[in-house]
Write a structure and sequence with these properties.
The protein has 449 residues and is an alpha+beta fold. Helix content is 30%, strand content 28%. The chain has 10 helices and 20 strands.
């Protein structure tokens, strides 16, 4: 055997041409063979994919109403575990958060806008907090769960108290079911009634339907997920019943991390100032991978109060590229505002539009900041009463106290006259008191000398 290079050296020109033809044919044959192999691999992959469900899409509605009010199946904390491949995952039970899913039928009956749960759920959440001391706050995000609410638990709550609270909430006519939150890798997650299921290729249609029926689960073709009827069987009990069957390749619970999908905030460096003061502001947008911000919604941000003329208000933004700014969280926009009129003004809310592809309906949504009340004082600040310059409104006649001045002038005049008189009298009596003999003559002095 020899290499092509060696064959070319040994043979003549005819042998070289023959070798080129042979190896050229071999190269073409190899390309066809490779294409055939790639086609077979692609076909096998397609057949393998068709044998299992595709990964579950994100879901935001978790209620499945029964014909009438019915309490969910009793839930044991010891049953909250699942398989990840061959590993058994046992999460911790959160003593801080609780998931409550509301009955969508009750929500529609209580809300004049059919299919919209925001107002109903938040009002119902406030009522539950007022009626139960174990609940101190709530967190609602329609991008995570449209028909559910997450409640913060009172600190120091025990497991027995948590179980009793779950049972009490499940008796409420508006509540469909209640689940505790779980902790995995130092993050808090909520589970509902949805899971993702992958079958083995050997499982036929009848076998699949029998297993789903045994687990009180149904396949939702619209969402490409499976739902457990938690009114009949606890969620993780149904999950593990399927996971332990030889016809099932993998079962994964649908979990939602408890953190806001989007948060917007407008903050001022101060809540008041004087005319012409420069007031710095910061506009912040924080969002998760579940949403995408519309760049045009932050291209022109209006902070001028509706009651103020544009000539009396100035707003300057630090340079930013709105198309690049929304590519990742967090978006931080800074600037300065000035007011040139006194009074109280309401800085309007800033609306941010975004899309939520994972949401069940109305994927285009918006969120807005809270309006801010700002007070503007005049150039001269108010001072205390004792140090303020008083300017009378009516003319005031000056009081010079002329009578007192005349009396003092007359008194001093009499004092001067009396002193002058006493001086004259003293001068007259001074020689008589000076000696007792005859007057002294200057000639006597000379004679004696």
């Amino acid at each position: 055997m020899f290499s092509p290079c060696q064959g070319g050296v040994r043979g003549g020109p005819g042998e070289t041409d023959k070798l080129q033809i042979i190896f050229g044919y071999s190269s073409m044959h190899s390309r066809k063979h490779c294409l055939t192999i790639k086609y077979c691999i692609a076909l096998l992959v397609a057949l393998g994919i068709s044998a299992v469900h595709a990964p579950a899409a994100a879901v935001t509605r978790f209620s499945a109403g029964a014909p009438e009010k019915k309490a969910p199946a009793p839930l044991s904390f010891d049953d909250i575990w699942f398989y990840d491949g061959s590993s058994k995952i046992i999460p911790d039970i959160s003593m801080t958060w609780l998931t409550v899913v509301f009955d969508s039928r009750y929500a529609r009956a209580a809300n004049e806008f059919e299919g919209t749960y925001d107002t109903f759920i938040q009002e119902k959440a406030k009522a539950l907090i007022k009626s139960r001391s174990s609940l101190i706050d709530y967190f609602y995000d329609a991008n995570l769960a449209e028909d559910a609410c997450f409640f913060r638990l009172r600190e120091g709550l025990k497991r027995d108290e948590l179980k009793e609270l779950i049972n009490q909430l499940n008796q409420d006519e508006a509540v469909l079911y209640t689940h505790p939150a779980i902790i995995l890798k130092d993050k808090t997650w909520a589970f509902f009634n949805i899971f993702d299921l992958e079958w083995k290729s050997s499982a036929d249609k009848q076998r699949r339907e029998a297993l789903l029926k045994q687990a009180q689960a149904v396949y939702d073709g619209k969402e490409n997920t499976c739902r457990v009827n938690v009114l009949e069987i606890p969620f993780f009990k149904a999950l593990n019943l399927l996971a332990e069957d030889i016809s099932v390749l993998r079962v994964r619970p649908y979990l939602v991390e408890l953190k806001p999908s989007i948060r917007v905030q407008l903050a001022l460096a101060m809540n008041g100032g004087r005319i012409g003061d420069t007031v710095p502001f910061t506009f912040t947008i924080q969002f998760s991978d579940r949403v995408s911000i519309d760049p045009s919604s932050i291209a022109n941000i209006n902070l001028r109060p509706a009651t103020m003329q544009k000539e009396l208000f100035d707003c300057a933004f630090d340079p930013y590229d709105y198309t690049k700014a929304v590519s990742k969280s967090s978006v931080i926009i800074t600037g300065r505002i000035k007011f040139f009129a006194p009074g109280e003004f309401l800085i309007p809310a800033v609306t941010v539009s975004y899309s939520c592809p994972a949401c069940s309906e109305n994927t285009v949504r918006s969120v807005e900041t809270r309006p801010i009340l700002f007070k503007v004082a005049s150039m001269v600040p108010a001072v205390k009463e004792d140090s303020r310059l008083l300017v009378p409104a009516a003319p005031v006649q000056p009081d010079y106290q002329t009578a007192e001045l005349h009396r003092q002038a007359q008194l001093r005049l009499w004092q001067a006259a009396g002193g002058f008189t006493v001086g004259i009298l003293c001068c007259r009596t001074l020689p008589a008191a000076g000696g007792t003999g005859a007057p002294h003559s200057p000639h006597q002095g000379r004679a004696a000398g």
